[in-house]
Amino acid sequence: MSNIEVQSIRGITEDNQEITLSGQILWTNVNHRTTEDSRSITISLVAAEMFVKPEGAESPLCTLKFGITNFEFEGNIGREQKTETSHRFDRGILAVSLPFGEIRIERLPDYEVAVANLKATQSIEPTCEMSLELSTHDIQWAKDFADDLCTILSLAKGTKIVWIYLDGYDGEGVNRLAFHKNAVTRPYSGASASVVDSIHPSDIKELIEKGYERFAQLKGQYKLGHVIDAYLESKRPHSYLESRGLAAIQAMELLAAQYAEKHNLVYIMDENEFGDKLGGIGTAVNEVFQKAFGESYVSALCGEHNEKLKSLNRRTLRQVLKQVFQDFVLIVPGSKLHALMETRNALVHRGSFNTNDRVNEYYRVISIMDRLLLKMLGYAGYILDCEQKWARVHL
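Predicted structure:
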């Protein structure tokens, strides 16, 4: 049975809920039970997605609520919290205005316990729900929006934030569907990974309001979602600093490569035209090397220098980054760019930082990437600059 390929499973639960399992479905266990009167089979499985709704429920959906993990924040709207033992107010709702309407991110009832667990164990915890009105949009649009929102929040907090479920409600507030997905998550990276301070709700609000449309425009052009996911690996606390620095460089190079491809900056001159001239250049270089170093040196090269000659037609990472910084109005002094390239070369070619001041080298790379990605999203507010000991400074 484990070899059966299943695309979806549909059925009715004991309480008359329609259930559909889809995506990759893995059989984990099959138990057979036989008695004198009957025989039963119990199948345990894991599905990528699970969709549940009451049988025959046709009421149109008005509101969707997405369960979001690992997002710690202060809201801009107060709310009253009553329990059997306490009565208090907190800033538990963050309201954000977007072109299609308002969204609200609200803390879950056990928010404080979840955040305490995150900080103590670097776990993965649902902390809040994001709600939006469907109006003229459909569920798939809402899922895509929630994905984009979580990517933006992940950049702000420096930790992987995802949604893992959604509930749908009709106009009377009755729950008409539930959807759960097997999301790719990461443990909480800690407060020091944040670049936008969620203690100041106006900062996060500005980032979402200015960044959402920009992210939607740029994510396809520059694979911005992949860049941010790769970049988040550089902020995971339980990795070697060299590995984290290399992850940040990898994200930077991925972004630079996408930018160069889009703006036709990969090659200095036409690749075919350069290739036509390369043969003569290679012959001339061979003659120069032979005269200068002897036949044994040329033989030891095994023709590898001809491959390196091809790279002369490619723009360097430094050249592409200078153009990226200029286009997105990020000021990086020449001395800092030079130091960045020295760090990059050392990490890529030696697996170590360029100097003994490893921590400052790492934070220099992180600070530049933080600023660049936020600039790309059009954010112009305050940031926590790790290079300045997490001072809250204007971008």
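Summary: The chain has a mean pLDDT of 87.
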